[in-house]
Design goal:
- This protein folds into 3 domains: about 210 residues, no CATH class; about 170 residues, Rossmann fold, CATH 3.40.50.300; about 100 residues, no CATH class.
- The protein is built from 20 helices and 16 strands.
- Helix 1 packs antiparallel against helix 4, helix 4 packs across helix 6 and helix 12 runs parallel beside helix 14.
């Protein structure tokens, strides 16, 4: 048996690599390595354009894997290989002790691991130690294996073997998906958007693809905040992504730009497919019979409106653009996003089906052999790049859009003016929402280094949310479950490392003190609401 690597060191190395990834630079994989990777993935994988893979899943679904994800996945490769090695030891220990497994794919499906008390009971008679010693002659390997199996909490606290190293696996060993959970946690991958990633990471390793094989093109600065783009309804068509922290008024900004003009609005979600966006054949009743007819999606409806009324400007609005694999949802429509100086699409594409073409010609009263983007149709999209459950946007897709960043500004007009009552021991202080939100953001940045697009915007809550004077539940749950899920609760909340969310909510309802002394100290002398 090979020597067991130190998982804590591998986690630290992976996180260090991930922290240094420049997301603004287009990722390219050298041709020989790309060919080797495709061979390892087999017939189910194929290229999509020049910067993505399409991989067929086990249940008839398709995974869209942008090359922009490769640096993060390759940074996790050594960790995944190490976990597989630990898993192999688990299987061999399980076999040597004749542990019955109802699920052969899970090495300890029926064993009581994940509980320190149960683990101690199993190890008292020495069977485990003997089995591990036989497989792993080296004492340091034995020690690592015992620590690996005896961790009492696999759901977020993790095992700490000194002041700097910490394992944070995420699932008990008797869960068949503990390797996936461990990898998603270290790589900060959202599980719902990460299907197929473990297989790709392991294909990297078996194909000999390493982080050094990646090449990066010059940064395109597509993520840099740009000046607000004023939109005249009679002006040329544009594609524009409006992004920023939650509560900064992205959707409101779109409404102001549209100013009551013709608009089709949709919301992207993880199950969104190309056929949902464009349209597809669906069963309809024709008298007493069931037949099939083309049912237009939001893109088809917006495009038809623009072609029917060419004297007016029309809008397609996509909320939460990155909650679906956007490039895959657009599919061939990706080609239409390139515009000329008049705002008209530079290129045309074939209709995805003859039924769509017939519907479109009938709807517009014109003959169309190809799809084209007219200059009187603009596409606006909103998103928060740091939100949970989102997909990355590859550079090739994003550079076809103008970018507008929404600043966090608690000094803006119409920010809710209601106050929040802060409890500090026997004292109570009313603090305006703008002051509270601004100070909270500053505290999160200075104390926990929270990224700007994960902070709270001035419209994160409404005046109605603040009427009770208590901290709104939507703020508490966002802090507790999103921002501070893995660390930092004890810095923001009083006894945050011991509380449950239920006890926190009950404390708010009982007008008890909930925030830490260091956070409350920011309000002792007052402060001015600023940009953050």
């Amino acid at each position: 048996m090979d020597s067991l690597p130190d998982l804590a060191d591998l986690i630290a190395a992976a996180k260090d690599k991930i922290s240094k990834i420049d997301v603004d630079r287009k990722v390219v994989l050298t041709n020989n390595k790309l060919e080797s990777l495709l061979q390892k993935l087999g017939a189910k994988a194929r290229l999509s354009g020049d910067n993505a893979l399409l991989v067929d899943g086990d249940k008839g679904n398709v995974y869209f894997l942008s090359f922009q994800e490769f640096p993060r996945l390759l940074a996790l490769a050594d960790y995944v290989v190490a976990l597989r090695l630990y898993e192999e030891v688990l299987k061999q220990v399980s076999d040597s002790l004749n542990i019955k497994r109802t699920d052969p794919s899970s090495p300890f499906k029926d064993a009581p691991f994940g509980s320190a008390k149960e683990y101690e009971k199993w190890t008292q008679h020495g069977a485990f130690s003997a089995a591990i010693a036989k497989l792993l002659p080296n004492q340091s390997d034995q020690d690592r294996m015992h620590l690996f199996m005896s961790d009492p909490v696999w759901s977020g606290i993790g095992w700490r073997n000194d002041d700097t190293k910490r394992l944070d696996i995420g699932k008990k060993l008797n869960r068949v998906d503990f390797i996936e959970a461990a990898t998603y946690k270290v790589g900060n991958l959202v599980a719902v958007a990460s299907k197929g990633r473990i297989e790709l990471i392991e294909a990297f390793s078996s194909a000999g693809v390493e982080y050094a094989d990646l090449e990066f093109e010059v940064a395109c600065n597509s993520y840099a905040p740009l000046v607000t783009v004023p939109v005249d309804p009679a002006a040329k068509g544009i594609n524009c992504i409006i992004y920023g922290a939650p509560g900064t008024g992205k959707s409101h900004s779109v409404d102001e730009k549209i100013n009551g003009a013709s608009c089709v609005r949709t919301v992207f979600h993880p199950d969104m497919q190309n056929s949902d966006f464009i349209g597809a054949l669906k069963p309809v009743m024709d008298g007493q019979q069931v037949t099939y007819a083309f049912s237009p999606g939001p893109f088809a409806r917006a495009l038809a409106k623009a072609w029917k009324a060419t004297a007016e400007h029309h809008y397609l609005v996509i909320e939460e653009l990155n909650r679906a694999p956007a490039a895959a949802v657009f599919g061939e429509l990706f080609q239409l996003l390139d515009r000329d100086v008049s705002g008209k699409g530079k290129y045309t594409v074939d209709f995805p089906s003859e039924e769509f073409r017939h519907w479109f010609c009938k709807e517009t009263g014109q003959q169309h052999d190809k799809m084209a983007l007219p200059s009187n149709l603009s596409i606006f999209a909103t998103m928060n790049s740091a939100d949970q459950g989102v997909y990355p946007l590859d550079t090739a897709f994003r550079r076809r859009w103008q970018q507008e960043y929404m600043q966090i500004d608690f000094g803006a007009r119409n920010v809710p003016a209601e106050a929040i009552t802060l409890v500090n021991g026997a004292n109570k202080t009313d603090v305006g929402w703008a002051e509270f939100g601004s100070n909270l953001n500053t505290f999160l940045i200075e104390t926990l280094r929270v990224a700007e697009d994960r902070l709270l915007g001035p419209w994160f809550v409404s005046s109605d949310d603040l009427k009770s004077g208590r901290v709104p539940g939507k703020i508490l749950i966002y802090l507790w479950d999103d921002l501070l899920r893995h660390h930092g609760r004890e810095l923001v909340f009083k006894d945050g490392d011991k509380r449950t969310y239920g006890s926190l909510s009950a404390a708010v309802a009982g007008d008890e003190e909930i925030f830490s002394a260091s956070f409350l100290a920011r309000f002792q002398h007052g402060s001015e609401a600023g940009a953050i």
